[in-house]
Amino acid sequence: MNKFSTTLKISESTRNFINILRLDNKVGINFILFAIVAIGFILRLYNLGNRSLWLDEIYTVTLSKADLAYLLYQWNTQPSLYFVIVHFFMYLGTSEFVIRFPSVIFGVLAILLTYKVGKMLFGVKEGVISALLLSISVFAIKYSQEARMYSLFMFMALASLFFFYRAIQRNEKTMWIGFIVLTALSVYTHAYTLFAISAEILFLLFLFIERRIRSPKGTQLPEVGRKTVSMFFFSLAIIFIAIAPLLYSLLTWGQYEFWSWMERPTVSFLLSIFNEFSAGPVYLSTEFNSTLALCVFLFFLFIGILTSVRKFGEQTTLLLLWGIFPIAAAFAVSFLFLPILGHPRYLTFALPAYVIAISRGITFTTNRAIDFVSSKKVKSGGVPNLENGRLMTGLILAIIVFGSVSAPSLIGHFKDLGEDWRGAADYLKNNAQPGDVIVVEPNYTIYCLKYYYNADLTKTTITSSYGNVEKLQKICDESRRVWFVSSSHIQYTDRDGKIRDWVDKNFKAVEENFGSVYVCFREGQVKHSATT
């Protein structure tokens, strides 16, 4: 009897707990959302300061160290909002942890905002599940752990979308003001916001035309009328006035060598974008794992889109424009005119659109499964009413499916050393001798080594061959001990591979692993000195 009573109490407790998590229970939703945000925060905080800063992060630190007046002046030449934020955080220190922490904050805020946008477009279930998907997304975690602007960009662009859609629905001044401010700040975070603005323009035109067609001839549009369209373009005018100095600089960037490292994208590059959005193929051990993660991602994505077009046509159109148009536009510009699409991270702001669409696919799948089970009237002792467990079922499905395909990539991300300039610098401190010459290639990565390595203390010389094999050979002829330090960036300056081939034949790689930073050493007889 006691055993039966205990079992009954456990069953009753389980039922009560799951009933708390019903969609109509705000306490339950808040509890789930808190748990999701906590998971996302922990994953973004884990191992945050252990990895060395890499090229772009060191540039962030270098620029953020400047005076605030200079940083504000930079607003006229490049998007600098993130550097201003890091500038103030650097009063707390300059460790890798502190430098990267602003990205963690905005990455977590993006999780909360994804919930708000998902709920606004489709409902609570989609909001919660999309927040979960973003919290465990390897792509989102990776760029929430970098001292770069991408997590801030995702948050700002998503906030712009939120206020944009709310403004169209309600046509309230506060919503338009929020849209103006956050869109302008998003542009000052990353120039790709201009593609997002274009998507919003297309959506509003689509909405206006679609509702004009549906409305009886001669009647006023009930929701999107001339006043709303006028307010939108008036808001755009204010935004473009606010970003006018920066916009001029952006339009003239093509005159400089800023884009020289980028190549014209191919179809395989488009596929790599979806690969990175799904589970980050860089860290998956086999092509099969990468393909599996991509297939799972695309399966629920297509289900979410196809099953939402009729019931949620307006919201689905917005997601498609937000998630697809910027990619297509950037690809077209890069392919036809100037290569500007150098890496999938430039499209970070589109990721929430995909996880929200996937959440629709998950909720549709779980709803159909629960409807099927309910129609068969399957009853199990102690199991709560399935109608109340739709959200939990969707969350469990998301955790099992997407958690399992993301786990190997997530583990790989945390183990990845990246560009371990700190480790390479420590090795040189312990092994370089006075008079040694350290050749760094490409030349623009010299400041990465100098960030962690002081040549004056070790009485060594840091130089570069500037992509010239003859210059490198001359340095070796004039010096007895030469170190060669390179990274994955050498592929952009040594496109024909001549320097790497010469180094492979004349240098010996050290045994230590510094991620994508490579250290080689050569010791030989001096053929002739620099003075002869």
Spatial order of strands in the largest sheet: 2-1-3-5-4
Secondary-structure element sequence?
Answer: HHHHHHHHHHHHHHHHHHHEHHEHEHHEE
Estimate the strand proportion.
under 5%
Gyration radius, in Å:
27 Å
Outline: globular
Number of strands: 5
Low-confidence stretches: none
Largest sheet: 5 strands, mixed
Overall number of structural domains:
2
Helical residues, percent: 55-70%
Distance between the termini: 101 Å
What is the helix tally? 24
Class per helix and strand makeup = mainly alpha
Annotation keywords:
2 domains; 532 residues; 5% strand; 65% helix; mainly alpha; five-stranded mixed beta sheet
Structure in a nutshell:
The chain has 532 residues and is mainly α. The chain has 2 domains: 13-283 and 290-415, no CATH class; 421-523. Helices cover 65% and strands 5% of the residues.
Could you characterize the architecture of this molecule?
The chain is mainly α. The chain folds into 2 domains: 13-283 and 290-415, no CATH class; 421-523. It contains 24 helices and 5 strands. The chain has a 5-stranded mixed β-sheet with strand order 2-1-3-5-4, covered by helices on one side. A hairpin with a 7-residue loop joins strand 4 and strand 5. The chain is globular, with a radius of gyration of 27 Å.
